[in-house]
Structure to design on (229 residues):
């Protein structure tokens, strides 16, 4: 079966701009989670969507937002970009039940200049 | 505060030996613990899951133990090969604590290098 697809793979943006990242989960998966990965902080949870509802949220400012569509595809938006937002953004899909394994996409490498 | 630590940032071992990676956590009571492998520039890949009532789980050359009293998990790779070189991450599923929803909290990761 097809894996988790994230687009775009690479992105360069200027400070102050906004960006939208996209994630297509594995067919049948209703949960999509987003993570930020940086060398200093490691993998940090941003939020999780399940059946179009945000079910869980990490400790990130309100500039980070997301949504999920009826076909389970998800988008993540970051507004007013800061240099510190440069990171690998990973999306993971799962069945959304306790103990479910997460299937990660290749990630979107965002560079803010 | 909640913390998940993995032993040393890097671990170098010789081909054929057993690699043992450690995951220690505080202030959590996870029902599940998962291990992932991550190669440079790629997303993590699921390897094994162990439940709180399981002491040990095996899959081919991989073995995971889970000690909820010590708040520790050990991850073993036997007969290691250069292809096993990667970063290994432990992750706690803290579903219960958050009151619902799928949230994995990851450790810092251990970079394993298997040398010929």
């Amino acid at each position: 079966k097809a894996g988790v697809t994230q687009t775009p793979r690479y992105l360069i943006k200027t400070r102050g701009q906004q960006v939208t990242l996209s994630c297509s989960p594995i067919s049948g998966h209703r949960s999509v989670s987003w993570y930020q990965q940086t060398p200093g902080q490691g993998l940090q949870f941003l939020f999780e969507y399940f059946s179009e509802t945000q079910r869980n949220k990490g400790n990130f400012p309100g500039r980070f937002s997301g949504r999920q569509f009826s076909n389970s595809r998800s988008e993540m938006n970051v507004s007013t970009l800061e240099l510190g937002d440069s990171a690998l953004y990973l999306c993971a899909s799962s069945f959304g039940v306790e103990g479910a394994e997460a299937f990660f996409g290749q990630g979107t490498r965002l560079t803010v200049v | 505060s909640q913390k998940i630590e993995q032993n040393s940032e890097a671990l170098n071992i010789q081909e054929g030996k057993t690699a043992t990676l450690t995951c220690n956590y505080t202030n959590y009571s996870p029902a599940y613990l998962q291990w992932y492998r991550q190669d440079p520039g790629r997303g993590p890949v699921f390897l094994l899951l162990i439940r709180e009532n399981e002491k040990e789980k095996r899959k081919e050359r991989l073995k995971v133990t889970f000690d909820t009293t010590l708040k520790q998990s050990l991850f073993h790779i036997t007969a290691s090969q250069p292809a096993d070189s990667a970063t290994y991450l432990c992750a706690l599923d803290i579903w219960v604590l958050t009151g619902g929803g799928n949230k994995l909290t990851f450790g810092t990761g251990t970079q394993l290098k298997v040398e010929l």
